[in-house]
Task: structure prediction
Amino acid sequence: MRATVIHAPHDIRVEDVPDPVVQQPTDVVVRVLRACICGSDLWAYRGESARKPGQRIGHEFLGIVEQAGSDVTGFRAGDLVVAPFVWSDGTCAFCADGLHTSCPQGGFWGSEGSDGGQGEAVRVPFADGTLVKLPAEAASDDRLLTALLALSDVLGTGHHAAVGAGVKPGSTVAVVGDGAVGLCGVMAAKRLGADRIIALGRHTARTDIARAFGATDVVAARGEEAVAAVRELTGGAGAHSVIEAVGTEQSMRTAFGIARDGGAVGYVGVPHGSGTGLDLGDMFNRNVALRGGVAPVRAYIPELLPDVLDGTIDPSPVFDLAVGLDEVPAGYKAMDERTALKVLVKP
Result:
């Protein structure tokens, strides 16, 4: 089959690789219908996170089950399924607590020895604990299929940030980051009942999506200028809840700078750069909480899926460029150059 591999920074290729097969009785093989490129994939693309030459890449996909191991009880050939970006056994104490990303037997698609999502098919370990079945009729609805793909990562990650930030009905929320996760954070905040949502971003195409998703205000500034603008919009108090969806020292400093005393920052931006931007003394003095981390999206899919299916929320606009599998390298280039927000892959 064909799959995307990374050989070096800025060297993404689509190559012939061995077809995936059932190796354990708990495995299934999924033929990929939709995949995508994540902003976190760009850290490997830019050389900011290590990869071995020839390693698979991509961690967001949905598709059709082609083969199922003998111990798989929840799925059979022909089922339409979505995969969260981490596989998990579904039986350990962490999975029971809804923290599937800490499953001792879990792992990330594209890690060494595993298939990546940006390919024609994927071997899925622990299928019963990992996959979520989707309605079969969704396979013929292109827009819905694209919206459902967001459940594999960005929608659940934005929701995780909103939950971590303590978004409540009537609250004021600020969102740092205008990428796909930040935009899904806007959507999540609106869904959880926020009364005012301030989106920080300087790209009109992205802030237009933020407004469509529920943002009431846009701040086109960074750093101290952004902090001052949000403080002015909130009468000097700051936001009850702040979603941090970038992961740099500057973005974290901004997040804490715009948080209201007694508020919380929900962070899901993959940390990268020179530091954390945390000032523990300031956090202590102002009673500002920090929650978040890698999102256990498997725990959130059952909650979010009905709203996607009935159209209450539609994250599909975050995918603004669609490519075929052989065009994936160009998709990485487009996202790296910020000419695309999030690239949809149709193998």
Notes: Residues 163 and 266 are 7 Å apart (CA to CA).
